[in-house]
Each structure stands twice: as C-alpha cells, then as structure tokens.
Amino acid sequence: MNRKKLRQSVEKAVAKASFSLRKDVINSLKSAYLNEKNKLSRKALNWIIKNAQIAKANNLAICQDTGLPIVFIEVGKDITISSDIIDEIKIAVESSYKKNYLRQSIVDPLNRNKPSYNNGVICHVDFSSKIKGLHITVFPKGFGCENKSRLKMFNPTVGLKEIEDFLLESVKEAGPEACPPFVVGVGIGGTSDFALFMAKKALLEKINKKNPDPQLDILERKMLKKINSLGIGPMGFGGKATCLAVKIKKAPTHIAGLPIGVNISCHALRSSCILI
Predict the structure, then answer these.
(1) Is 253 helix (H, G, I), strand (E, B) or coil?
(2) pLDDT tens string for the chain (276 positions)?
(3) 3-state DSSP of 38-87
(4) Residue 193 lies in a domain
C-alpha cells in the first residue's frame, strides 16, 4: 500500500468532514427550513444552513467543537492490514487537525489541565468480503451531543412500548443542549458496549435512506414522528424540526438481556469516506 497516498487521502477526509456537511444532511436541513412554520425556528435553521455554506466556501470548521476524531476502517478481501497502517491513519488525522487549524480539544481524562493534544484518535477495524480495498470513514464527533449518550440494559421481557419510551426520554433529556435538529442513532442488542457502538455507527447511514429491515424502518419512522412532536425544535426554539432522522441497527443478543444504546448527533453531523 502506498503510505503517502494513504496519509494524504486521510488528511483530505478529515478536512472535508470538518468543513462540509454531508449532502444528505444539508438537504434535510433545507427541507426542514421549507416546512417550518415557527418564525424563530426558521431563523435558526437559516443560520445553521448559512453557517454550513460559509464553512464550506472558506474551509472553516463547521463548529467550534471540532470533535473527537473517530475512524471506521473496513478492510476488503484483497487487503492485508497491520498495526503500521492504523498508526499511519492516526498520524494523518493528527496532522490534518494541525494543518487545518482545527481546535485541539483532546485532553487527558484525569489531568485535564495538561496541554491539549490530538492523539486521542479512536479507530474501529472491521473486515468485509463484500468490498475491495480499504474503506475509511472519518467521523469527528462533537461532545455537546456525545454527552447525551444513553445506555439501558432492559429485561428481555420488555415490550416495544418500553423501548420507545426510553428513546423518547433520551431525546427529551438531551433537549436544546445537544444542538437540535438531531440525528438519533440507536443500537439494539449485542452487549452493552456493542449496543452503543451500533448506535454511533448508525449515524453514518444516509439519513434519507430507507432501513432495509422492515421492522426497523417502521420503528425509525414512528420514533421520528414522536420525537418531532416534542416541540423542542431547532436550537430549542420550538417548531417541527427537533429531529432530522432516527437510524437504528440491531444485533443478536443473549436470552437474559436486551441492551439499548442511544447516540445523538447535533445538526453538524460530519463524516467523510474514502476508498484506498
């Protein structure tokens, strides 16, 4: 693998994710603006859209919170990967943060008065026989919304209504502090850690894409309607657009439990993909 090409590609992906909202997200924001009747909420959506346009045109960070960089690495059937490749990707992420003057927000979790550093890059590696090459997704996750993550270990006997109530409660608790309109990622099943992992990975799905699982598709649409009925609205000003989309993933779990993870993204849902 060409290390120089890898490094340059990752650096560009970091910059793109930091400066440009995904097309599906910006289109959804524009649709929300057109459908919003509340005057203050329309103003807030207009500010959000204009901010994204200015950031993209001038290579500026969409948000002052430049996030904690998460990298999802999918390894194709024709690729051999080693720890050196992971290290190269981490170095490229750190380098891009410095080159593009992105705020260094990463600190030691206990000694928080130490100087900021960006070597907190988190990498997730998976393998797939369905693709060729190396598929890399850069996801800078802001912490206003990350702080609103929720996990609940349900008894296996609960009904869907109790799960729906928990999801709704999680969004109500997040409120304006997580900078709505949100995209809500949900993970159902697996273990406690895997439910939260799925919830975060769900945020990478195109928000206008139908869930291929019919049951989850119905639940996504139902929860979107319920969340938008809360009336929190853009930046907490009320109105229709509290949530742009609900995205759900599920995995088999143990007969004795039912983990549910919730990971919320603010309106600045930033990610960028490359194929090496």
Answers:
(1) strand
(2) 788 999 999 999 999 999 999 999 999 999 999 999 999 999 999 999 999 999 999 999 999 999 999 999 999 988 888 999 999 999 999 999 999 999 988 888 888 876 565 678 999 999 998 888 999 999 999 999 999 999 999 999 999 999 999 999 999 999 999 999 999 999 999 999 999 999 999 999 999 999 999 999 999 999 999 999 999 999 999 999 999 999 999 999 999 999 999 999 999 999 999 998
(3) CHHHHHHHHHHHHHHHHHHHHCCCCCCCCCEEEEEEEECCCCCCCHHHHH
(4) yes
Q: Which residues contact residue 52 at a Cβ distance below 8 angstroms, ignoring those fewer than 6 apart?
A: 20, 21, 26, 29, 62, 268
- Token representation of residue 172: 């109500």
* 3-class SS of residue 212: coil
Question: What is the CB neighbour count within 10 angstroms for residue 254?
Answer: 11
Query: What's the rounded Cα separation, in Å, for the pair 74 and 242?
Result: 32
Q: How many whole angstroms separate alpha carbon 71 and alpha carbon 100?
A: 18
Task: Give the three-class secondary structure for 184.
Answer: strand
Residue-range definition of the domain harbouring residue 156: 143-267
CB-based contacts of 108, cutoff 8 Å, min separation 6: 114
- CA nearest neighbour of 260 among 251, 268, 272: 251
Residues 6+ positions from 171 with CB-CB distance below 8 Å: 182, 184, 227, 230, 232, 242, 243, 264
- For residue 170, tell me if it sits in a domain: yes
Residue 13 lies in a domain: no
Q: Residue 62's Cα: distance from chain center in Å?
A: 14
Check residue 230 and report its DSSP letter. T
Rounded Cα–Cα distance for residues 45 and 235 (Å): 9
Cβ-based neighbour number of residue 225 at 10 Å:
11
Domain count, the chain: 1
